[in-house]
TrEMBL record:
One of its GO terms (biological process) is translation. It holds the Pfam family HGTP_anticodon. This is glycine--tRNA ligase. Gene3D superfamilies: 3.30.40.230, Anticodon-binding domain (3.40.50.800), Bira Bifunctional Protein, Domain 2 (3.30.930.10). InterPro entries: aa-tRNA-synt_IIb, aa-tRNA-synth_II, aa-tRNA-synth_II/BPL/LPL, Anticodon-bd, Anticodon-bd_dom_sf, Gly-tRNA_synthase/POLG2, GlyRS-like_core, tRNA-synt_gly. It comes from Haloferax chudinovii. GO terms for molecular function: ATP binding; glycine-tRNA ligase activity. GO terms for cellular component: cytoplasm. Residues 5-478 form the Aminoacyl-transfer RNA synthetases class-II family profile domain. It is found in: Cytoplasm.
């Protein structure tokens, strides 16, 4: 299938079969918002549950659900108010706004245009002779501006509190850290997960659910003591990965590196063992849920792409319709987030780490004479005292002189040294307060759903007729089983079909019951929405002695096998979990000709 065809076919199928479609179409629609239909909502929910099972349950992590609207100071502390921008260029003729970096990347060999400054982007647009995609007007000479992507709102009526819809779920975890650490018994390392909605006022949403203004993230914030906590790579060291390091991206003859997690960490390609651990876990998870590993890679961020606080960052990327799209990011965020909230917030964002044995240390301390500081500095006296304490910790030698020079809110202040009452004391300490570092795997659920649909979309020919089907993994398919009585006017067949459907639903399977049309048409309908198995109840299976049988058909191959009703649930449980293959079922039971 050629580039462009895959996306068009997928969008048509998604709308026709109820996976996703543009929202509010009765009112003309609005860009960047999509509604998931019955099939899409089930697929998305299954992907979320599969992620939760692997990254929360199996890893022993906590899970929270924080509000999607948070007050302005949260985003002042996080840096989103000042630095959460994309580059916008507006057409002088039609007034349409476009992302400058996307225009450049779509019309040149440059893959990292987002690293350009607005001035450099404007020059590049002029050099390339780019025009407005909407009306064709020349964009040369148009200024490129930074546009903040957050949705602003007001909390409460009247003189309300300004707030924002969260642009990522992570901030809800960081803000609640002082309470969450208590649930983790103040014991590092520990992880906190959250699956939920985030919002970004994208300049130019595109490629259906790949770039939207409302989307679902699944994020894990893993808190560690960088001096004491080491990642155990034993579970993932042999996992094979396809890496695209920054050095290879920048080289003229750069290429992928095929290696294992253990080797990549040992060789320094992945510079942080914790990142290596989560890349290994993600590689296995993506394969389990059905991503085509021949169209999957981990790409390291170039220096200009990384946030200033991130020492290393890798993206999981999938190839769809000829383009590589980011579906997850893995970043070592150091202590930036908790330090910022500790600076701006009114709570303790540290964790007390107890030493194996108490330590005796010399500690520089001050005991400022407030009777002197109060009359001299008035309301500023407390700030002066705090500045003295900070200086004593940072530079004890500063108290050797007769006077101590301080910077208090930008103002230079001098205090007599004897007023500070400086001394060095011997203290016994049981531990210390540290600000944990954070390792963050962040998954885009919507982009994962899109990838699964694109990678699962197949066409072939069955009985001389063209067939399109979704080869979705049984672990995430929206419907697990189709149940079909061969005819609907034979009571015995209908009764058995009803019983089979009820038993499967009671066992936790999503079942569709269909008695309409030819059996071939019923198969095609389920093939197209990715149902992995279909159960047909026919006269040959009515034994009359309680040993009834049915046929089970596998979606991709179209092969069928006759199976005892008593064995049906156990067989399907194994197939869904991946502990058994359909070839195993074929080997153990009577094969039926299609």
């Amino acid at each position: 299938m050629s580039e462009g065809d895959e996306s068009a076919a997928l969008t048509e199928l998604a709308k026709r079969r109820g996976f996703f479609f543009g929202s509010s179409e009765a009112y003309g629609g609005v860009g960047g918002f999509y509604t998931y239909g019955p099939q899409g909502a089930a697929l998305k929910s299954n992907v979320e549950e599969a992620w939760r099972e692997r990254f929360a349950v199996q890893e022993g992590n906590l899970e929270i659900e924080a509000p999607t609207i948070m007050p302005e100071p949260v985003f002042e502390a996080s840096g989103h108010l000042d630095g959460f921008d994309d580059m916008l260029v507006e057409c002088a003729e039609c007034g349409e706004s476009h992302r400058a970096d996307h225009l450049i990347e779509d019309n040149s060999e440059l893959e990292d245009a987002e690293t350009l400054s607005p001035e450099e982007a404007a020059e590049k647009i002029a050099d390339l002779g780019l025009v407005c995609p909407t009306c064709g007007a020349d964009l040369a000479g148009r200024s490129v501006e930074d546009f903040n992507l957050m949705f602003e709102t007001n909390i409460g009526p009247g003189s309300s509190t300004p707030g924002y819809l969260r642009p990522e779920t992570a901030q809800g975890i960081f803000v609640e850290f002082p309470r969450i650490k208590e649930y983790a018994r103040n014991s590092l390392p520990f992880g906190v997960t959250q699956v939920g909605r985030a919002y970004r006022n994208e300049i130019s949403p595109r490629k259906s659910i790949v770039r939207t203004r409302e989307f679902t993230q699944a994020e894990l914030e893993h808190f560690i003591d960088p001096e004491r906590d080491e990642a155990d790579l034993s579970a993932v060291e042999d996992v094979s990965v396809l890496l695209y390091p920054a050095t290879e991206q920048e080289a003229d003859d750069g290429d992928y590196v095929e290696t294992t997690i253990g080797e990549a960490v040992e060789d320094g390609i992945i510079g942080n063992a914790w990142l290596g651990y989560f890349l290994g876990i993600a590689q296995e998870w993506y394969e389990t849920v059905g991503v085509d590993m021949d169209r999957f890679r981990f790409r390291q961020h170039l220096a200009g792409e990384r946030a200033h606080y991130s020492s290393d960052c890798w993206d999981a990327e999938s190839e769809v319709d000829g383009d590589w799209i980011e579906i997850a990011g893995f970043s070592y965020r150091s202590d930036y987030d908790l330090s910022k909230h500790g600076e701006y917030g009114d709570d303790d964002f540290t964790v007390f780490q107890q030493y194996d044995e108490p330590k005796t240390v010399e500690r520089a301390v001050v005991d400022p004479d407030m009777a002197t500081l109060g009359p001299e500095f008035g309301a500023q006296a407390a700030d002066v005292a705090e500045a003295l304490e900070t200086l004593a910790e940072r530079d004890p030698d500063a108290f050797d002189a007769d006077e101590v020079n301080l910077d208090v809110d930008g103002e230079q202040i001098t205090v007599d040294a004897d007023v500070a009452n400086f001394s060095v004391e011997t203290q016994t300490e049981a531990g210390e307060h540290i600000t944990p570092h954070v390792v963050e795997p962040s998954f885009g659920i919507d982009r994962t759903v899109y990838t699964l649909l694109a990678h699962a979309y197949e066409t072939d020919e069955v009985d001389g007729e063209a067939r399109s089907y979704l080869s979705l993994s049984p672990a995430v398919a929206p419907t697990n089983v189709g149940v079909f009585p061969l005819v609907s006017n034979v009571d015995e067949l209908v009764d058995l079909a009803d019983d089979v459907a009820a038993e499967l639903r009671a066992a936790g399977f999503a079942v569709v019951y269909d008695d309409s049309g030819s059996i071939g048409r019923r198969y095609r309908r389920q093939d197209e929405v990715g149902t992995p198995f279909c159960i047909t109840i026919d006269r040959d299976g009515l034994e009359g002695d309680g040993a009834d049988t049915v046929t089970i058909r596998e979606r991709d191959s179209g092969k069928q096998v006759r199976l005892s009703v008593d064995d049906l649930v156990g067989t399907l449980v194994g197939l869904r979990a991946g502990t058994a293959s359909f070839d195993d079922v074929l080997d153990d039971n009577e094969v039926v000709e299609a």
